Q: What sequence folds into this?
């Protein structure tokens, strides 16, 4: 069992980002956190959560570092009996708001993993993306997190923004590897509706070779690629839980939950969420939809697909791909050998 908590506030809006977050609603923070608390009580019952059974907790956003640790405290007190010993507890953070005080407060609440949105160490690129921090602030925040005792530290990079060259990205990767991190998420820029970049889609560079270049450079420096965009000497259990389609609570405005064959969608509008955090839309997935999802997620990561999930025709297709060396077959699972071909491989397995 996993648990995700969404914090829908940001200091400013990055030009590429469509995640649910507000830059003008900071006065609602206290009310928002108490609505989150209410939803969590409801979900603990709905998911029939037992003591010591939540394996990973992830606080994401938006920007979790816009909320002071004392406002998280009630939620932690509520969740702590349900967290397994040794649970992976992650928070996202932005370099400009993750002060030493904030980091220490979150560490003291029990966080053991932190994921920083860095995107680049290039001053100009950060400006064009409308990031609110400098490269030096990112370096400092990461070093502070380590010296305050965070066990696992990750950073996010974005590539294939216009003008990205091998040189620029090598510099980003080299600077990342000077820092005390054990994980990198490297995302190819996507142009999302309702973002500033949506009006200028040409800012995304179409260069598949650069994607391969970035992943090779990260792998060369010792991190394992365990999903298209994720690399580490530590592999996040929360991420892997999603790709195995484990059950997850999704709390907060714009979060998504999943239980057996159902998806749960709380309100995305923050004011509506605050008023009624239990107004949650439900979607029922068919067996076929669940299988398709498991195939796509499994092939984008090192999770793979359990053989006995596939019908005879799908197994034949997968066995053909094993012969063609596009898949490996290990411990009764089909494992993808090139995550960048995941979607093509999935479609091949699903074809009649
Ligand atoms: C939801 S954000 C939260 C992290 C944190 N707020 C921050 O920005 O520092 C998680 C990550 O998603 C990535 N991301 C968001 N929108 C993206 C896009 N359109 N294309 C590529 N990556 C994106 C960024 O790397 C970002 O750090
Ligand atoms: S990337 Fe992070 S800081 Fe930027 S708008 Fe999205 S959630 Fe907020």
A:
């Amino acid at each position: 069992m996993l648990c995700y908590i969404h914090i829908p506030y940001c200091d400013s809006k990055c030009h590429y980002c469509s995640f649910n977050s507000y830059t003008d609603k900071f006065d609602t923070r206290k009310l928002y956190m108490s609505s989150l608390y209410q939803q969590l009580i409801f979900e603990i019952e709905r998911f029939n959560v037992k003591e010591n059974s939540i394996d990973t907790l992830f606080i994401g956003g938006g920007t979790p570092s816009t909320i002071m640790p004392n406002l998280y405290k009630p939620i932690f007190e509520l969740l702590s009996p349900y967290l397994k010993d040794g649970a992976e507890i992650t928070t996202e953070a932005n370099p400009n708001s993750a002060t030493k005080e904030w980091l220490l407060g979150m560490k003291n609440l029990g966080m053991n993993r932190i994921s920083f949105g860095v995107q680049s160490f290039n001053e100009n690129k950060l400006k064009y993306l409308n990031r609110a921090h400098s490269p030096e602030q990112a370096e400092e925040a990461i070093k502070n997190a380590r010296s305050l005792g965070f066990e696992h530290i990750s950073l996010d990079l974005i590539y294939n923004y216009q003008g990205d060259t091998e040189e620029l990205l090598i510099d980003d990767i080299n600077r990342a590897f000077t820092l005390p991190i054990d994980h990198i998420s490297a995302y190819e820029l996507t142009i999302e509706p309702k973002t500033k970049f949506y009006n200028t889609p040409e800012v995304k560079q179409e260069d598949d070779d650069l994607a391969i270049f970035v992943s090779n450079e990260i792998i060369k420096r010792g991190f394992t690629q365990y999903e298209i965009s994720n690399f580490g000497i530590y592999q996040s259990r929360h991420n892997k839980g999603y790709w195995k389609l484990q059950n997850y609570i999704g709390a907060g405005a714009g979060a998504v939950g999943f239980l057996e064959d159902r998806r749960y969608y709380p309100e995305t509008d923050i004011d509506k969420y605050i008023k009624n955090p239990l107004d949650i839309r439900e979607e029922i997935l068919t067996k076929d939809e669940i299988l398709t999802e498991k195939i796509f997620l499994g092939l984008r990561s090192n999770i793979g697909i359990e053989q006995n999930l596939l019908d005879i025709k799908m197994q034949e297709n997968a066995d053909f791909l094993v012969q063609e060396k596009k898949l490996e077959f290990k411990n009764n699972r089909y494992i993808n050998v090139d995550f960048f071909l995941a979607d093509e491989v999935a479609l091949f397995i699903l074809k009649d």
